[in-house]
Write a structure and sequence with these properties.
With 200 residues, the protein is an alpha/beta fold. 34% of the residues lie in helices and 15% in strands. The N and C termini lie far apart (41 Å).
Length: 200
């Protein structure tokens, strides 16, 4: 998993509340078990018209936000079903950080397991960040995970809280497998003991 330390990007404003996982990645794209290739289907029902052409009004189709790595979204982001394809699609599109006032628990946990930083901020701070995002390519946000701080284009800052263990995992690029491999020496020593007992 790619470590997350600092990230600077033009933030994309998605001023929609209760964005559920079916909106993030519609059910017809859930057949794959690969984590790649889902970026084109991200927000498919909002990004594309019925004929398959792009909806020019959707934020990620606008020139300023096509390469956004930060998404500023409305309350209760990631609600609905527990599909892990939702963070897979966000990450495959290029989004490494989602900022909102609240997240659904399962989606929130899945983000950390896939290298995405979900940040919870107050309603007042979210409005400030929406204002920054509305400025398009003229404005960028910098997210510093070590300092737990978001810096806006005018130098203003927003601080955020994060569980220390999750912070450690993100900063070191550790998913569940990576955490297990950190204990490789102890695991191998234990297995050697079992082998010796078996032959005793």
């Amino acid at each position: 998993m790619q470590p997350f330390t600092t990230l600077t990007s033009t933030p994309a404003p998605l001023k929609v509340i209760n964005v559920d996982t079916d909106m993030i990645i519609p059910k017809q794209f859930l057949k794959t078990i690969k984590r790649t290739g889902l970026g084109t289907a991200l927000f498919a029902e909002m990004r594309y018209k019925e004929d398959g052409s792009e909806n020019a009004d959707f934020v990620l189709n606008q020139p300023a936000y096509r390469k956004s790595e930060i998404l500023v979204a409305g309350d209760n982001f990631g609600c609905g079903s527990s599909r892990e394809h939702a963070p897979w699609a966000l990450l495959d599109f290029g989004i490494r950080c989602v900022i909102s006032t609240s997240f659904a628990d399962i989606f929130y946990n899945n983000c950390f397991k896939n290298g995405i930083l979900p940040i919870v901020v107050s309603s007042e701070d979210l409005e400030k960040l929406f204002d920054d995002a509305d400025r398009g390519s003229n404005a960028t946000l910098t997210v510093d995970l070590e300092k737990q701080q978001i810096t806006g284009p005018d130098g203003g800052t927003v601080t955020f809280n994060i569980d220390p263990f999750r912070k450690h995992c993100l900063m070191n690029g550790l998913d569940d497998i990576g955490l297990t491999l950190e204990k490789k020496t102890k695991i191998e020593a234990y297995e050697d003991k079992l082998k010796q007992r078996a032959w005793a």
